[in-house]
């Protein structure tokens, strides 16, 4: 087995996403089964880490794009920047949903309708992001998945 070839296609960002989702799934299952008695805020910590990395990455990307005016002149770079902004917007709406879910589970002070409001906004944004992505030959995997789930969610 060639380790060099194995790690040549290694994508650290996707590894972080999958590791965070796996850890979150395990912690949530353990919490729901009563094996651990952690706060839901602690159970959601892998999700918070993922969102923190997205926000930091978008901040760095915005800083680089703003400091280099030659990037704004290139057509493809502008499309990349807009795709990043769309993805961060979707992440922020999902972060708002996750925070409201944790708060609702821990304190029970919100109506579930209020908790799901960010998802009601994510659905049309995801559909619009998919259309925009297909028109600009972009791969917006998350937007496509979210728009599919939102269309299934809205079925009677």
Automatic annotation (TrEMBL):
Taxonomy, superkingdom: Eukaryota
Coiled-coil spans in chain: none
Keywords of this entry: Membrane, Transmembrane, Transmembrane helix
Residues that span the membrane, as ranges: 15-32, 39-61, 81-101, 113-134
Pfam family, one: Tmemb_185A
Protein name: TMEM185A isoform 9
């Amino acid at each position: 087995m060639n380790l060099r070839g194995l790690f040549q296609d290694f994508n650290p960002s996707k590894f972080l996403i999958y590791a965070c989702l796996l850890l979150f799934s395990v912690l949530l299952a353990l919490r729901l089964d009563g094996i651990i008695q952690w706060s839901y805020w602690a159970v959601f910590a892998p999700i918070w880490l993922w969102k923190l990395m997205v926000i930091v990455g978008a901040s760095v990307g915005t800083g680089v794009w703003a400091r280099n005016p030659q990037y704004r002149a290139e057509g493809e770079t502008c499309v990349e920047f807009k795709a990043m902004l769309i993805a961060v917007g979707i992440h922020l709406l999902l972060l708002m949903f996750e925070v409201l879910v944790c708060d609702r589970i821990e304190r029970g002070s919100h109506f579930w309708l209020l908790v799901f409001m960010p998802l009601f906004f994510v659905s049309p944004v995801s559909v619009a992001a998919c259309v925009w992505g297909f028109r600009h030959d972009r791969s917006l995997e998350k937007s496509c998945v979210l728009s599919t789930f939102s269309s299934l969610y809205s079925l009677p």
